[in-house]
Amino acid sequence: MSSCRDALLAWALLGAAAAAAGGEPYPGIGRSATASELAAWDRDVRPDFKGLPAGRGSVAEGQVLWEARCAACHGVFGESNEWTQPLSGGTDAEDIRRGRAARLADPAYPQRSSLMKLATLSTLWDAIARSMPWDAPGTLSADETYAVTAYLLHLEGIVDAAFVLDRASAAAVQQRLPNRHGMQFEHALWPGGLPGSTRRPDTRGDTCRRGCPPPQRVVGFPPGHARDAHGELAEQNRLVGAQRGAPTSGAAR
Ligand code: HEC
Questions:
Q1: Those residues with Cβ within 8 angstroms of residue 58's Cβ, 6 or more apart along the chain or in another chain
Q2: Which residues touch 199 (CB under 8 Å, ≥6 apart)?
Q3: Rg of the chain's alpha carbons, rounded to an integer?
């Protein structure tokens, strides 16, 4: 108890000292980010392509990169459905014309691909630039990001094999995305809503308090010998809040 109080006191004194020095806006807590630190994070690309850096990349260059740095996880044609979801597949020329991927509404179609769902090209570019390849995110140059994006677009039949993606050609690609009209605004999370919108959420929280149905009985558990496959879960969860890990080391259920 007293060590906690001492720490708080020290924190308050430090804060007071910093405030007296007239420096940081949140005295005692870190420091302001430098301009170059901000620039390293401030690289989002928006639907109107604000933030898209200069550069260019062709489908052919993208194919070489794809096969070297992406295909292992996503499949040679972006079709992998083993441990990543398929990135490409599932659209046709009619979807490109309409701007809505018809198979999204077909329950018989086995799996939705990323390019079936994509409504804004900036999202694809931004996701690749930030997070791929998964084993070395942030290592692609702008030209390389343009190139692999162009290759993915080609796999989906959106651009031809001679296509070069850059800032100038991006807007025309946006107008060919198979699901470009697929974004929904008619929900309560979108600020403003559309004219006439009731803006009610599409789910309703309804916590049962009286006359509730009997709780579900869980019947499927991993077998006893596999319970500690990820170590002792009880030690891996945070100590505050509702989430607790079950004790798993050794003990059979
Ligand atoms: C080591 C495996 C691995 C490699 C290599 C890899 N990815 Fe991924 N990728 C993943 C995983 C796993 C996900 C899903 C989880 C995530 O988004 O972080 C993913 C997600 C994506 C997505 C987003 C899909 C969606 O619908 O949200 C895109 C686009 C993508 N990868 C493109 C690429 C490109 C381009 C490359 C090569 C430059 C690449 N990936 C290399 C594993 C990989």
A1: 147, 150, 162, 163, 164, 165
A2: 186, 187, 188, 190, 193
A3: 25
What residue type is 160 in one-letter code? Answer: D
Look at 98-112, 150-164, 233-247 and tell me which has the smallest mean pLDDT: 233-247
| pLDDT tens per residue across span 127-156 | 999 999 999 998 999 999 999 999 999 999
Q: What's the pLDDT at 15?
A: 46
Determine whether the shortest distance from the Cβ of 103 to ligand 1 is under 6 A. Answer: no
* 148 C-beta closer than 6 A to ligand 1: yes
pLDDT in tens, 163-214: 999 999 999 999 999 999 998 877 666 666 666 666 666 677 777 888 888 8
Residue 26 near ligand 1, beta carbon < 6 Å = no
What residue owns the CA closest to ligand 1's atom 27? 114
Task: Decide: 45 in ligand 1 pocket, CB within 6 A.
Answer: no
Q: Which amino acid is at 144?
A: E
Atom of ligand 1 nearest to the CA of 135: 1
Peptide bond preceding 133 in cis form (omega within 30 of 0): yes
Q: Please give the distance, rounded to the nearest whole angstrom, from the Cα atom of residue 74 to the centre of ligand 1.
A: 7
Give the number of the atom of ligand 1 that is nearest the alpha carbon of residue 124. 29
